[in-house]
Design goal:
Elements: H1 3-9, E1 12-23, E2 26-35, E3 39-41, E4 44-48, H2 57-75, E5 82-84, H3 91-104, H4 106-111, E6 123-125, E7 144-147, H5 152-160, E8 168-171, H6 177-186, E9 193-194, E10 197-199, H7 202-209, H8 219-233, E11 238-241, H9 265-279, E12 284-287, H10 294-303, H11 306-311, H12 329-338, H13 344-351, H14 362-369, H15 383-400, H16 406-412, H17 415-420, H18 439-449
Parallel strand pairs: 1-5, 5-6, 7-8, 7-11, 8-9, 11-12
Antiparallel strand pairs: 1-2, 2-3, 2-4, 4-10
Length: 454
């Protein structure tokens, strides 16, 4: 069925309630959603924490907001035009959530051929139950919670903060070996690795198989709300992300469709305002790498202890097996962005694939560098830094007397090589002023990731 047909048949989505229970060391949370006429959904979480005070108004607000972040993954099945909530919301608050959904579903709308707009894609009708607006009880929050995904970005954050990890906790949703290995290698002990368990409702997966609408949703927003909730429940005062300035670039060249919307500075800024105005829990949330490009992050990562090189994993296709698949756009991007800084043979060994010699990856490389209009729908860097990385990789091969891989030969023969080759030598000193870093951390990042490479 089409978007319009589904909305006619299933006109209403209901967020019924939040259920909670506590067993030793873990808070159990489940949400009850319903698409009227289709069925119910109950995603769940288990969050490690000491016994929480469930009368704390900040806990109630955080739990409800995590449910709102989960909601969109189930709403997208049939895209009902009306969403009914049990809690009261102001128009400004409802519009905040609509903006997150609309921006975060840009890829979903685009790839499913859905034409809609902010005003009509969803109406949020809030209920009469009021969440307390009272400030959180006075409690001491201290320490850092660092989401660790197992890729190079969070490893760079861990390494930059290596002298400040005495009060740090690592955070990962569901277990992933590479995330745990990175945290342990950085010196965070096992008892300070907080690993909530998130469980999708199986009926959603069944609906996907039955041909209902499916696609990308803003997962990083779930990371944001769940990490701040976990931090607050554990008395931790700061959540430090590893999102970079490159995440703000649109994936589609002729439209604002960003695969990484909830990693963008716009979302980080909006989330900061939401915590200030609505959550009011006192947990600070920002990305340490926001002023940097993927190029600068890769350059710094290449200089890190090679033990990190052996364990990092950035491939989504191989995530469940904790490996590189060796044939997706994300694997190719990693090969490209590291190629100015590591010998290509070493990159081949780490990824287990000679990707720059694969003819079938040529069109993907064209997407990455902008020879084709749309970037791959993956978390990859900007078109400019891909081009400059390719130019610098070609220069490196010439210095090393190494033969150029097939895709670099093809790139060198393209107009993009002529356009970017002259700019490559001066690249890497960028600094994006749009960030929320405390002054001392901004100085640290600038010194270690920019000034150190002059």
């Amino acid at each position: 069925m089409t978007f319009t047909e589904l909305r006619q048949q299933y006109p209403e989505f209901i967020f019924h309630e939040t259920r909670m229970g506590y067993e030793i060391g873990r808070l159990h949370i489940s949400y009850l959603f319903e698409i009227t006429g289709l069925g119910s959904f109950s995603p769940s979480w288990e969050i490690p924490c000491p016994q929480p005070d469930l009368s704390d108004p900040a806990v109630s607000r955080l739990l409800f907001s995590l449910g709102m972040a989960e909601l969109v993954s189930y709403w997208k099945i049939a895209c009902p035009p009306v969403v009914r909530l049990p809690m009261h919301m102001t128009k400004e608050q409802a519009d905040w959530w609509k903006q997150l959904y609309f921006g975060g579903l840009g890829e979903f709308f685009y790839r499913n051929g859905i034409e809609t707009d902010f005003g009509s894609f969803m109406t949020i009708e809030s209920g009469s139950d009021a969440l307390s607006s009272a400030d959180a009880p006075q409690k001491t929050l201290s320490g850092k919670l660092i989401p660790v995904g197992g890729g190079k970005d969070s490893i760079v954050t861990l390494n930059l903060l290596k002298g400040q990890l005495g009060d740090a906790y690592a955070y990962q949703i569901n277990h992933r070996d590479s995330s745990e290995k990175a945290a342990l290698l950085a010196g965070i002990p096992q008892e300070r690795i907080l690993e909530p368990k998130r469980t999708l409702d199986p009926f959603m997966l069944e609906c996907n198989k039955r041909g209902f609408l499916n696609g990308h949703t803003p997962f990083s927003a779930i990371v944001a709300f769940s990490s701040v909730l976990t931090a607050y429940l554990n008395g931790i005062g700061t959540v430090i992300l590893s999102n970079e300035s490159s995440a703000s670039e649109s994936t589609v060249s002729e439209a604002e469709v960003n695969h990484q919307y909830s990693k963008s500075y716009q979302f980080e800024r909006d989330f900061f305002a939401y915590e200030r105005d609505y959550l009011r829990c006192g947990v600070r949330y920002f990305s340490l790498l926001r002023p940097l490009t993927e190029f600068q992050i890769a350059r710094y990562f290449a200089s890190c202890d090679t033990k990190y090189h052996e364990i990092f994993r950035s491939c989504n296709a191989g995530a469940k097996q904790d490996k590189w698949c060796g044939h997706c756009a994300k694997c190719l991007f990693v090969a490209v962005i590291l190629s100015p800084f590591l010998p290509y043979g070493e990159i081949v060994r780490l990824l287990g694939a000679d990707m720059l010699n694969m003819p079938e990856m040529a069109s993907t490389l064209q997407e990455l560098c902008g020879a084709l209009p749309n970037k791959p729908f993956e978390c990859v860097g900007s078109r400019k830094e891909v081009n400059l990385s390719l130019c610098l990789a070609i220069e490196r091969a010439a210095r090393d007397g190494a033969e150029l891989p097939l895709l670099l030969k093809q790139y060198q023969a393209s107009p993009l090589w002529k356009e970017y080759a002259g700019q490559a030598a001066g690249f890497g000193q960028e600094w994006d002023p749009q960030h929320n870093l405390p002054e001392n951390l901004a100085a640290l990042v600038k010194r270690e990731c920019v000034e150190a490479f002059r």
